[in-house]
Each structure stands twice: as structure tokens, then as C-alpha cells.
Amino acid sequence: MAWDKILVDLIGLGLIGFIVWFFWLVKTAGVRAGLTSSGYQEQMVLVKGGYTPDLIVVEAGKPVRLNFVRQESASCSEMVLLPAFNKSAALPEGETVAVEFLPKEAGEYEFACQMGMFRGKIIVE
Amino acid sequence: MISKALETVGRKVGGARSAPSATTGVSSEAKGSRRIELPVSGLTCARCVQAVEQTLRAVPGVRGATVNLAGGRAFVEYDPEQATIAGLHEAIKAAGYRVGAAKIRFGIRGITCASCVTKIENALLVTPGVLKASVNVGTEEAEVEYLPGAADLSSVKAAVGAAGYEVAEAPPPGGPEEVDKEAQARDREYRDLMHKWWFGAAVGIFTMIFSYPWLFPLLRDWFPRGSPQLRYIWVGMGVASLAVLLYSGNQFFTGAWQAFRHRSANMHTLIAMGTGIAWIYSTIALLFPQIFPASEFTEVYYDVTVVVTALVVLGLAMELKAKGRTSDAIKKLVGLQARRARVIRDGSEVDIPVEEVLVGDVVVVRPGEKIPVDGEVIEGASAVDESMVTGESLPVEKQVGDEVIGATINRTGAFRFRATKVGKDTALANIVRMVKDAQGSKVPVQRIVDVVSGYFTPSVAILAILGFMIWYTFGPEPRVVYALIVAVTTLIIACPCALGMATPMSLTTGVGLGALNGILIRGGEALQTAQKLQTIILDKTGTITYGKPVLTDAVAVGRFREEELLRLAGSVEKSSEHPLASAIVEGATSRGLTLLDPQAFRAIPGHGIEAMVEGRELLLGNLKLMRDRKISLDSLEARSVQLADEGKTPMYVAVDGEIAGIVAVADTVKEDSKSAIQALKTMGLEVVMITGDNERTAGAIARQVGIERVLAEVLPQDKAFNVQKLQLEGKQVAMVGDGINDAPALAQADVGFAIGTGTDVAIAASDITLIKGSLRGVVTAIQISRATMRNVYQNLFGAFIYNALGLPIALGVLYPFFSILLSPLLAAIAMSFSSVTVITNANRLKRWRPRAA
């Protein structure tokens, strides 16, 4: 086998390894939602190509308010769903939309856009 | 502090309104007397009325005060010199009641400093009728509390204008303006995408031609392969295609980058990688041809870059157009809302925007007009077309006491009604909200898709790399060109969008379809379960039947005629409060009989009643009563048993010790119950009736409507248990009943159908709410769920198959056998087409119409 083929295959395998590691193996650190004076656990979520932060840690039994701000016009992200809490909200571009819910039990709950391309997780402790 | 502010304001109000005349010393306005109507809330009893009236009369300057309990209003006549509106307000508050002031919020433009705040607040506070005003600099919003009788929205806004600021009209949430705004945003995005497409297409045609000049007769001579002038043209193409990538393909690169930062990948990543790689390769080949071993490697693929970008952008634009149509249902519903209402304020009709209508207002509706809000008819009668909300095509008769639903259209007569629900509490607003929530929910099959799409995009990238490696290692020459085309085509043909959109698009259309047919589906889960139901349990009372007894039979014997029998029976029952009695009274009056007042009325518990009518001694009751009084029944006893077998309640009538006949009442079956049950059976569902009635009555009704399986004598609290028993038979069970009494059973069932009654649409326990009280709704709902789920599966199947076929072909599996290799341009067309197909298929669902199965 010629050296160039070996080189291409090695680079290719390296890239595959990187994709697997980058997208599936790395875990990001979550952000803990701040507690406001009104008793809400509040967190701002930026919607732009994804959710920032996309891992939010909250406490069980206290109401949570996520303020979504969508700063893009791609129609993919025009809705956010929290199927576990039966909540959904339309996100007009540039507006802050609050989604409130009460996490009762500890666990991991997903929030995502309607097509499931953008995902985030809420960890209830 | 606030109350103090109110005092001053109040005084200003009084003073401004009725300045005393210079000559007489008294106000010109009704001799110093003003009348005001204050909405008071918290009035629960007649005693409260007295308390409020006394409190008001005790306020100095008040000349008279009357409180209307039903309307929740206080009418006060006062001397503005001595009393103030704010004072009256305080007095009512001190007595423990609240003045139902209206509260509005609106945005104000041009607030630049803190001093503006006080200026606007003061301007608002001096407006007659305004109780409270606060302006927030941060949000640029004002919140104003005002008395609807004394001020209105326009006067409040005029005050802001007079102070030199502009009111920013804040649309009510879910109102028509919001929907318009969404449509506008969509339009803007569409136009933007179309510009990008045209730019890409224009550059595309140029690059297509000059990428292969040897295919065109004239160009072949001017730009031969490898000639310096072709190289210059290609450099120009490189620059032009970079412009296309940066302008038309902008969203792919920014989207890909954003996603990358979130360690995720999506459609943007794939397109950006595909077009980007093609451009970079072409540019390297153009600038450094010497690093490639042979001249066939040094061709450029700018056409791939440009045309793929243009086509995918066009696909996005088409997708957007089609997506806009899936939410038509919401637009239609919101568009139903009335804009203006005519209400009685201070005794005269005023035309106001519908947002200003308050609970308790008396609203006037003329023939042909839209009913603005929900309420109860208090005067007049008419036929109302409720089809837009309930799906019921025939106009519904409305009389005093009947409920009317906002957004329905008054057809024949004029009437007045008292508003019971306004703004976000109306049936229509609830329907819109529920539909929106449901459209945003998930169908359970979506979970599989979610898992798949989480791995999809990176997997495609891995496949593309593998494809490159395999073609480079084992492929034919020029290897690097083939490997590149395979990798780029693979990246472009994969369509995570089609997969992701498959279920949400169908769900949105399906839920909307339900709403337009008077069926509210709570979410994707209810929709998916409803199509695989096996058993339907129908509650008898109120679901199969009207739930209200009516007079069904009058059997006269001997010298009595039917009319006389009814007239006497009706007269006796006139004083009774028993529900069966009112059925007889209503039955008699509806036949045009004039009833008399009974004398010496006496109820005999467990037996019946006796009374004197026209000097005759009347008895009305059961067999026991007749036996006790030793009245001979002759052949009537058999007739009575027969009536009872039919599920009716027979009652004997005797006059002066002689039997006169039988009157029978029964809860009657709704007209379309039988056909609906028949339809459910043809759909392959087992139909079961559940009721608290005895076996005989239950059996009679069941026979009438064609139900074989009856669960009779079930106590209300045991209904849920009976649902569970059927579920234990391994069946998917639906329960149909009213949302309040049957709530536990509805919650226990796999799908709970609540039969709605008019405006109360937000029924918690139900998965599906039928706004119209007909069983046909159950049939339609199941049909809709089946049609929607079929659509979902079609979409999912299409999307999976598309990717499952497209990816291997792009990777070149057909090449060794048929020498077929997909062009990246075809891949771009296929990719755009697949997502548009999914949406178009979902839109096809909108053409669905209820069938008479």
C-alpha cells in the first residue's frame, strides 16, 4: 500500500475518533440555576445554534423559570419543548420567553426544539 | 401613600368634572349630583348587598346607593363637592369588599429618564376614573387601574399622549396581532431566503457553464482545457462562489459553528462541511496545481459549492412556506375573535374594543353580529351559529339562562347577555391555548426519532470520512476526485430535517384539524393512544342521553282525555321541586296547556304527592300510593310495567279517587347517539355502557342504541375501578363521560373523552374534550387520530427510507455493479425535496373531512 493511502486512512481514522469523542463521549459541566427573591430558580437560556447553557441543574420542589432568548431566525428553533413537564413555548426572535414549571422528582429531563436538533438537559436534584 | 394619592386625585376628579356654576353656586351637572356605577366583587349574599349599601350611604355626600347582587354593581349618586370616587372606593374596601377595577398594561415609547415616569404617572392619575398608575422605566410599560364606568382605555391612552409620550400598542397574547407578527417574521425570513436563492442561482448558472466550457461549442474554442484564460475565469468563479457561501450559505456556517460550540451537529453542519470541502479543494487545485500528480486532479468544483448552497436555500424557503400552512388552524381560530362589543355602561349602549369588556357587563347582540365574549343570556332569544367553535353545523336555540360562547355568530334574534368570561378566560382563548400546547407536545413515537437524530449527524460525517478512505484506498483513478465527490455527496444527501420534522408537522395539523371540528386533543400521547383503542366505555347519563328527564308518555283512561290528564298532572307538580316534576310541568306547558296553582299541596315521601286542583282531589305517585288509597288500576298496571321496561319512570294519576292515567318521564337518548355507536362498532371497537341505573332501565337504553355490554348499578366512585377491570382484560380502554363527575374514570382510562358543555372547555382530567356534547365527536376524534398517526408513520417511513437508500447510493455502493455515482447536485435536490415532501404530506392531512362511518 502506498504511503499516501496509509496517511489518508490514518487521518480518516483520527477524524472519526475525534467525532466520536467530541460529540458523544465528552460531558459538559452544568450550570446551576440561581434562586431569586421570589423563590424561583431562574436561568437565562440563549437560543442560537443550540441552547446556552444546555445543562441546567435545579433543585426538586422549587419552581423553575427558564428565560429563553432566541437570537437567530432559523425556523428550527422557533419552539422549545419540555415534554416531561408538558410545556412548550414559541420563541419569537429577540424576545425573552419565560417557561415555568415545578420539578417534583429528581432526575434528568430533556428540553429540545420541535425537531430534536437542539437539545438541552435539566438535572433535578 | 397610594390611598393618599387617590384622595388627591379623587378630589381633582370631582372638581374637574363638576365645577360649581358661578351664578348658582351649584354644579350644572344634575344639580350637583353625579351618578356612578362601580363594579364590586366579593358580593356573595343578600346581606353583603345591605352592608355595602349602608357603608356607601354613610359616606358624606352620598345621596343614594343601590347594589345589584347579580350584576355585582353599585350605583351611587353623590355630590362631587363632598364625596370623591376614591373615597367611595376606600369605603367599599373598608367594608371588606373590592372594587373590581380594570387593570391594563401597555408599553410607552420615548421614556428616557426617571423624571418622565412621574410626569406620565401624574398625567394618568389626574385622568377621571384612574385609581392607580405606575410606570416602569426598565420595561417601558405602564400599569393602570381604572374604574370602567368612569374611564376607558382610550381616555387613559389619551392622557399619556397629552403628556407627550406615545403609547406602544401591546398586542394581547395569543391575539390576532401576535399571529400577524409571527406571519410577518415568517414572510421576512422567506424573502431573505429567496434573495439568497436568486443570488446563488445567478452565480450558479455562470459557474455551471464555465466549469465545463468544453461542453459548449463556442466556449470550447475560447477557453480550452488548461488554458490561462480559463484559469482566470476559474479564479473569478472562486471569488464569486466564496461570495455565495458567505451570503447565501451564511446560515449554514454560522449554524454549524454554533452547533459545534454546543458539541452538537445538525443539517447546517453537513451542508457547511460539504460545500466548504468542495470549495477548499477547488481553490487548492487552482492555486497550487503542482502538488497534484496529474492534470485531471486540478479541476474545480465551484459549481458544487454554489449550486448545492442555492438549492438547499430554496428548499428551506419552500419548507418555510409549507410550514406556515400547518398552523393555519390557530390562525383561523384566532381570527374568529370579535374585535368590538356593544355593552351597557351607565344605562346606555357603548361600542368598545372587546378587550375592555368586563365580567358582569351586559352585552347587546344584534342579528348577524358576532358574540364578543362568553356569557349567559338575560334577555331575548335567538338562534346562534356555533359551528366555528363546536363543530355543530345547525344553529343552536338560545333563551334566557342559556350560555353563549364568544366568537359564535348570532343569526336571527337580538338579545342581551351578561359576560361571564372575558379575555384569556373565554372558551375561544382556552381553545387556542390548548391547541397551541398540544401542537407543541410530542407523539410517543417521536422518542425513537429523538434517539436516532442524536446520533444521526455525527454518524453521517463518519460515513463520509469512511467513504473517502475506501474510495481513496481502493477506488479507481483519479482517486482523490472520486473520494472527494463521494464524501461531499454523502454529507449533502443525508437529511436529518426530514426525520426531525416527520412527527411534529403531522401532529400540528392533526391537532388543528381536531380543533376545527370541535375536538380538543390534549397532546401527542392522547392522539397516538386514541388510534389503537379497543374498548369504549360510554357513561349513560349526559353522554348517551341528554341527562335531563323529559315527559315521554301520557296514557289517559276512562273518561279522561290525554290533554286533561297532562294539565292536571302539570298543575299538581307546579309546586314540587323534584326534577321529575319539572319534566312534567315543562312537558305540559310545551303542549300549550295552561297550568293552575294547586292548593293543599302535600308531598308523601316515597309515594308521591297530593293536592287540590280546581276543587278536585288529585293524587300523583307510584303503585304504593294507589294501593294505599285503594284505587283500582285495571289494565294500567301492565302498561306501567311496560313503560318501566322501556327505561321510563311511570307515575299514576288519580282524580277524586278514580284512576285517570299514567304520565311517564325518562332521560331520552340524544338523536345521534345510536348512529355514533353504530359507527364506533363498524370501526371495530367494543362499546360498553356504564351507569348507576338499575339493570332494567340501563338495559332499555342499551337496547335502544344497540349496546350489548352493560355495566349497571355502578356507584359513581366505582366507575374508575370498572375501567381498570376492562383494562385488565388487556384492552386499550377509552372512557367517555362528563369531565366533572367522571373525572377519576376519565383519568384511569387510556384515553379520557370529556363531553363538554359549552364554554367549560378546560377540563383537567380529559385527554380529549368534545366541545359539542354529541357522541359523534368520539367517532370523529378517533378518525382524526387514525388519519394523523397514519400520516406520522408515512412521514417517518419516508424519511427513514430516504436516508437508508440515499446514503449507500451516495457512498457509491452501486458503482462496482452499474458504474452509477450520484452527483452532489442531485443529492442537494433530493435532500431539499425530502423535507418539503414531509411537510406537504402533513399538509395533505388538512383536507381530511369527517366521514359518516
The main pleated sheet of chain A reads as: 6 strands, mixed
Taking pLDDT < 50 over at least 5 consecutive residues as the criterion, the unreliable ranges of chain B are 1-30
Q: What is the tally of helical segments of chain B?
A: 30
Strand fraction band of chain A?
Answer: 35-45%
Shape of chain A: elongated
For the largest sheet of chain B, list the strands in their spatial order: 18-30-29-28-19-26-27
Helix/sheet category of chain A: alpha/beta
Description:
Chain A: This is Cupredoxin domain-containing protein. The complex is a heterodimer of chains A (125) and B (853). In chain A, a hairpin with a 5-residue loop joins β2 and β3 (41-47). Chain A is built from 1 helix and 11 strands, in the order αβββββββββββ. The longest helix of chain A is centred in the first third of the chain and has 23 residues, at 3-25. Chain A is of the alpha/beta class and 125 residues long. Chain A has one helix at residues 3-25; strands at 31-32, 34-35, 41-47, 51-52, 55-58, 64-70, 79-82, 87-90, 96-101, 107-113, 119-124. Chain B is built from 30 helices and 30 strands. In chain B, the strands form 6 sheets. Chain B has a 7-stranded mixed β-sheet, with helices on both faces. In chain B, strands 10-9-11-17-12-15 form a 6-stranded antiparallel β-sheet, with no helix packed on it. A 6-stranded antiparallel β-sheet of chain B has the order 20-25-24-23-22-21, with helices on both faces. In chain B, α8 (228-247) packs parallel to α11 (302-326), α10 (267-287) packs antiparallel against α11 (302-326) and α11 packs parallel to α30. The longest helix of chain B is centred in the N-terminal third of the chain and has 36 residues, at 176-211.
